[in-house]
Design a protein that fits this description.
With 731 residues, the protein is mainly alpha-helical. It has 27 helices and no strands. Helix content is 73%, strand content 0%. The two termini are 85 Å apart.
Length: 731
Amino acid sequence: MADSIPSPSPTPPRSAADLFSDPLDSHPLWFKPTAFLSRDFDSESYISELRTFVPFDALRSELQSHLSALNHELIDLINRDYNDFVNLSTKLVDVDSAIVRMRAPLVELREKIEGFRGSVEASLVSLRNGLKQRSEAAAAREVLELLLDTFHVVSKVEKLIKELPTVPSDWSTGDANNNMMEKASSINNGLSLQHAEVGTNLRETQSMILERIASEMNRLKFYIAHAKVSQSLSLSLSFTHSLFIQNLPFVENMEKRIQNASQLLDASLSHCFMDGLEHRDANAIYNCLRAYAAIDNTGNAEEIFRTAIVTPMIQKIIPHDQLGVVDGASTELESDYRLIKQSIQEDCKFLLDIASAGRPTEFLRNYKTSLDFLAHLEGYCPSRSAVTRFRSEAAYVEFMKQWNLGVYFSLRFQEIAGALDFALSSTSLVPVQNQSPDGGNLTLKQSLTLLDSLRSCWKEDVLILSCSDKFLRLSLQLLARYSNWLSSGLAARKKVDAGSNPGCEWAASAVPDDFIYIIHDIDLLAQEVRGDYLRHILQLLSSCSAEICDSVKDSILHGGNSLSDMIPQVISTIIEALAEKAAESLLDGERAAAYMNAEVKSKLISGAATEITGRYYELASELVNVARKTESSLQRIRQGAQRRAGASSEISDNNVSDPDKICMQLFLDIQEYGRNLASLGVEAADIPSYCSLWQCVAPQDRQNTIKRSLDVPEPVLKETETNSSPCDLDA
């Protein structure tokens, strides 16, 4: 194979000039042949540019060499395509006439293309004009829709103001109404309560309508501000310039109506707020405060509260005509301060309870209502950036700071975790008395409390989604607390002083049956945590990302698995308890025998043997009778099948039947049992139930040989006879 490969041809020797000199076709760096191919090539400028740094002789020689190279290339090309050059003259016949014939269609085609180009440009101009008019029309339509919305909102505000419930007289006649109600109460208490209820409903209805009006006024302010922005953006449009040049006359014409509605709202809201403060109507006050917040006029609410509550209270406690306050006795000043504190407690503190976390249920209801109100306001924001700016406002931030979610969670933590700690601090396992449908068939109070605590973390009236991470941590802590309670109790049970460990007393007093209940509850709790409980949490957190949901799922499953991991420890504890119980019974029997004489001991042994033998006979006889009845039924079925098949019914089965096997096994057992009784000093043949048992299971040839059989050990049976096993007895 090596011979078939041709050897490379030797390379010709290279001279020193080829190695150390420039190639023959190389040019100096200043000479570029490609420059001659440029469209804007100018020979004079080219030569004048090169002569500034290249000698004339060198330039001439280089150009001549390049010319000779081009001539050589031309000759090579002609020689390569010589036939084509020779035939070129014969093929180029009547070239001028062909050019004339082609010129006319080309000119016509050029004219058509120019015509199409002009029409396309005209269409483009028309399209641009149409788009411009369309954008102007869209801007004008937006302004018109804005004006229509403004008109509708103003009309709606005026309609709502007219729908305000009226009172018997002016808003400020609260004292007269109170006097009338006091007189009515002296006549009829039931009628007075009815009037009071009507007044409360009237104030609440007024406050709710005023809150709606305030919301619409806030919407109206938004439209007006948006109109000003639209005006500044539309000044460059020729179509809408005339519409906005006079500063939205349509809005200017409605300014008077808007001002009247705003004044009526301020007056009505002030009177309703004062009336609510006077009657301490929390719902009316809360609605009025939300209305003030909607129109961004909280200063007016503060001024009304200062005028209606604070000023009269201070004037009542410290009159202006009272002199010598500074120079008077210190007890008078202390009395004044005490009265001020009392007035604040009675008349002002209920306002602070709105945002106070001291009452978690009311706090959560008010917090969710406030968030719903803020979400309603955010609905008017046209974009996400507007929502971000709205949330970054100082008023928004200050309002959210009033809701102390940390304190709320701390109170809920104490409430939920405290209930579980109280249940686990019991010194014994408490069974569930009245099982509720939500209890899941739990048997112990401690387990039921854990399930209730876990569910409380994710109830609608407890959970705040912004604190869901804290409630998840609380759920896992509850599971860990329950597992630690079990493990510490089981570990303390193994110690001698188990009852001395706080929180582990239940394990010292628990019996094996109690641990069975614990296993049952652990199974149910683990299934609930990994099942419905996990699905409920994932449903509440469905708005979160998939990564967060997976982390929550893994943590909950880990908590459920930690409960299941406690079952082997509980089973081990049950086994140890049973073993200890058996050992205690054995020791007690040995100690009791030391205090009994032979006669008493003989009576106890004889009586116990008689009772045990009687029960032994009942169980064995029932087992044998059932086996014989079953065998008889099977025998009849087999005989019927043989007759239908035409076989002889006289053919008998030589195999040992199941009842015979059972009797053989029982016969061996009672013989050994009789010998054990004899070793204790009890004569088995003297026990009637033993004789009956012998007659039941003994073979026909051994029916009357009880004493002899007990004296002589039974020989080993043949393989055919000992073919039965304890499994046959169980069958």
